[in-house]
UniProtKB/TrEMBL annotation:
Reaction mechanism of ThiL seems to utilize a direct, inline transfer of the gamma-phosphate of ATP to TMP rather than a phosphorylated enzyme intermediate. It catalyses: thiamine phosphate + ATP = thiamine diphosphate + ADP. It comes from Brumicola pallidula DSM 14239 = ACAM 615. Pathway: Cofactor biosynthesis; thiamine diphosphate biosynthesis; thiamine diphosphate from thiamine phosphate: step 1/1. This is Thiamine-monophosphate kinase. Mg(2+) 5 binds at residue 213. The keyword Isomerase does not apply. Belongs to the thiamine-monophosphate kinase family. Mg(2+) 1 binds at residues 44-45, 120. Residues 148-299 form the PurM-like C-terminal domain.
C-alpha cells in the first residue's frame, strides 16, 4: 500500500469535523480559521518506542498517549483543543495496527472535539509526533511564571498511578488485586488529559503545569519560572486506593506519588481569595482536587514535609530526565 492509500484509508475519514477547518487532510497544507477574540496555543510532543512506551504496546495505547500528552500541555495553558497534526514514523505497514491506531485517534477527536487536519507518514523506527493547537480567549493563558508567595498549591486526580503501572508492566513489582493491577496499568496506557480542569482554571490559577516528569520535578519548573519557593506536605498527596492497598510501605507509596512521571495531572497555584471558588468549580465537574502545599518567598527552595517534619528523597528518585 502506498502512503496515499494509507492516509485515505485510515486518517482522512472517521474523525471529528470542525467548521473552523476550511481545508483538512488531502492538500499540500491545511487551512484553518481562528475565531475572533481567540489566541492560538501550539504544542508538539514526540513519543518513541522504547523511550516513551514499551515495545509491543497496543496501538490503542500508543495513539491515546500521543494525543493525551499534547492535550495535557494545552490543558496546562488553559486552552481548548481544536486542531491536531500527526507525524508518523512506521517500520512497516501493518493494516490491523493502523486500523486500531487510527480508530483510537478518531474516537478521541470526537470526545475532545478536535479535528485531525494533516500530518506526515514516513518509514523508520516507530515514533509518533503530534502537534496540537487550541484556543484561549485573548491573553488568558496560564503560565508557569505567575505563582506568588502565599498561593495554595493544588493537584488534580491522584499521583503515582502511571509510575506504579509501568513498574507492574516491567515486572518490577507485583499487585495481587487484579482490579487494582488493571486500574494502574490503564493509568499508564491511557492517561486522562485534564482539559476541562484547564479551561476552568483560566483567570483563577496564577500558574499551572502538567505533571509529566513527576510532581517534584515539575514543581521545580514552576518555582524557577515564578521566582518563588514552595512547601509540599507529602502526607497530603492524593494517592489511589490501588496504590495504598498494594504498596505496603507508606514511604514507597509517597515516593511514587512525588517522583514518578506520566500521570498527566495538573499542578497549579491559586490565591487564597480564589481557593473556595476553584474547589467548588472543580467539584461541580467531578474533578478531584487536593491542596498539597503553599508557595513561599524562599526562592528556588522546595521544602518537603512529612507529618510537619522536614523530609528528603534520595536524589536518584527525583524525576526522569533525557540525556542524563
Ligand atoms: P506532501 O508530500 O505534499 O507533504 P503527503 O503525501 O505527505 O503530502 O500528505 C498528503 C496529505 O495527507 C496532506 O494533507 C497531509 O497533511 C496528510 N497526511 C499525511 N500523513 C498523515 C497522517 N499520518 N495523518 C494525517 N494526515 C496525514
Ligand atoms: Mg509527505
Amino acid at each position: 500500500m502506498k502512503e496515499f492509500d494509507l492516509i485515505g484509508n485510515y486518517f482522512a475519514k472517521g474523525g471529528y469535523v470542525r467548521k473552523d477547518v476550511l481545508l483538512g487532510i488531502g492538500d499540500d497544507a491545511a487551512v484553518t480559521k481562528v475565531p475572533a477574540g481567540q489566541c492560538v496555543v501550539t504544542t508538539t510532543d514526540t513519543i518513541v518506542e522504547g523511550v516513551h512506551f514499551l515495545p509491543q504496546t497496543a496501538p490503542e495505547s500508543i495513539a491515546h498517549r500521543a494525543i493525551a500528552v499534547n492535550l495535557s500541555d494545552l490543558a496546562a495553558m488553559g486552552a481548548q483543543p481544536a486542531w491536531i497534526s500527526l507525524s508518523l514514523s512506521l517500520p512497516s505497514i501493518n493494516e490491523s495496527w493502523l486500523k486500531a491506531f487510527s480508530e483510537k485517534i478518531h474516537s478521541l477527536s470526537h470526545y475532545f472535539s478536535f479535528q485531525l487536519i494533516g500530518g506526515d507518514t514516513v518509514q523508520g523506527p516507530l515514533s509518533i509526533t503530534v502537534t496540537a493547537q487550541g484556543f484561549i480567549p485573548d491573553d488568558n493563558q496560564i503560565t508557569r511564571s505567575g505563582a506568588e508567595p502565599g498561593d495554595w498549591l493544588f493537584v488534580t486526580g491522584s499521583l503515582g498511578d502511571a509510575g506504579v503501572g509501568l513498574d507492574l508492566l516491567q515486572n518490577k513489582i507485583t499487585v495481587s488485586n487484579p482490579e487494582h493491577a488493571s486500574y494502574l496499568k490503564n493509568r499508564h496506557w491511557f492517561p486522562t488529559p485534564r482539559v476541562l480542569a484547564g479551561t476552568t482554571l483560566r483567570r483563577i490559577a496564577t500558574s499551572c503545569i502538567d505533571i509529566s516528569d513527576g510532581l517534584i520535578q515539575d514543581l521545580k519548573h514552576v518555582i524557577s519560572r515564578s521566582e518563588v519557593g514552595a512547601i509540599v506536605h507529602l502526607d497530603k498527596l492524593p494517592i489511589s486506593e490501588a496504590i495504598t492497598k498494594n504498596i505496603e510501605n507508606g514511604i514507597d507509596a509517597i515516593t511514587y506519588a512525588a517522583t514518578a512521571g506520566d500521570d498527566y495531572e495538573l499542578l497549579f497555584t491559586v490565591p487564597e481569595e480564589q481557593r473556595v471558588h476553584i474547589e467548588t468549580a472543580l467539584a461541580s465537574y467531578n474533578i478531584p482536587v487536593t491542596r498539597i502545599g503553599q508557595i513561599t518567598g524562599a526562592t528556588g527552595k522546595i521544602d518537603l514535609r512529612l507529618n510537619q517534619k522536614p523530609f528528603e528523597f534520595e536524589s536518584r528518585k527525583l524525576g526522569f530526565e533525557h540525556f542524563s
